[in-house]
């Protein structure tokens, strides 16, 4: 069968996330769904796959939940199952900025810009365009003219903002990420720090790729996604990347041609840190697959 993949999030106050976790896990398993749902008191963040009918059943259930209500989602189709099983996890934050006090459900976030208006915004010479994703994601693709903060985790972004951006100098700041959730928190943080004109891409990169024709696009490269597809192209189809099981870094043709690449063991990004003990663990895992 074809697998429908729904990616969604919502910042909303959940009074009993632990009870919701138990209920959601049971329901999703009964509907044959696979993927991950993160729950916290600040909301939910999910990527879930299944057949068309059961994905719609899940979305309808969440939209009708008294504390959650309607939200938008991004969707794509793949022939292979993108996840092995269903997981519902409790977290302190549904996306970890390291500042739990920054809560988009309770405070102002940046101005949403629809994909059709994004090109005009980011070609404004007064706009500083920040890619809010991690460095390995930016390496696969980004928007023309975007700044790469060189972060290895989202929690490093506030430090980049504090050290490289100035509300008095950078009057207009635009941010983007894969599906929009990181920018919700990042733009809220910028506004809290005194930045006045802060924008973010509605629905993230995935919504832009779905909405903007390739001929008009300012996107360059592929987009990393957090499932078995690894990365998608402008048509939202899986591109030619695998995931290094040694370090989790996406590897393309160039990395696979390296003498430091060994499927399931290492790649050029982690070969130097490969200890005999780690090699033994990875080799054992490969034998058990």
Automatic annotation (TrEMBL):
Domain Rhodanese: from-to ranges: 123-217
Superkingdom of the organism of origin: Bacteria
Classification via Pfam families: Rhodanese, UPF0176_N
The UniProt record lists the keyword Oxidoreductase: yes
Listed EC numbers: 1.14.-.-
Substrates-to-products reaction catalysed: uridine(34) in tRNA + AH2 + O2 = 5-hydroxyuridine(34) in tRNA + A + H2O
Keywords: Oxidoreductase, tRNA processing
SUPFAM superfamilies: Rhodanese/Cell cycle control phosphatase
Function: Catalyzes oxygen-dependent 5-hydroxyuridine (ho5U) modification at position 34 in tRNAs.
Similarity remark: Belongs to the TrhO family.
PANTHER family documented for this protein: RHODANESE-LIKE DOMAIN-CONTAINING PROTEIN 7-RELATED (PTHR43268:SF3), THIOSULFATE SULFURTRANSFERASE/RHODANESE-LIKE DOMAIN-CONTAINING PROTEIN 2 (PTHR43268)
Entry-linked HAMAP family: TrhO (MF_00469)
Annotated protein name in UniProt: tRNA uridine(34) hydroxylase
Species this protein is from: Leptolyngbya subtilissima DQ-A4
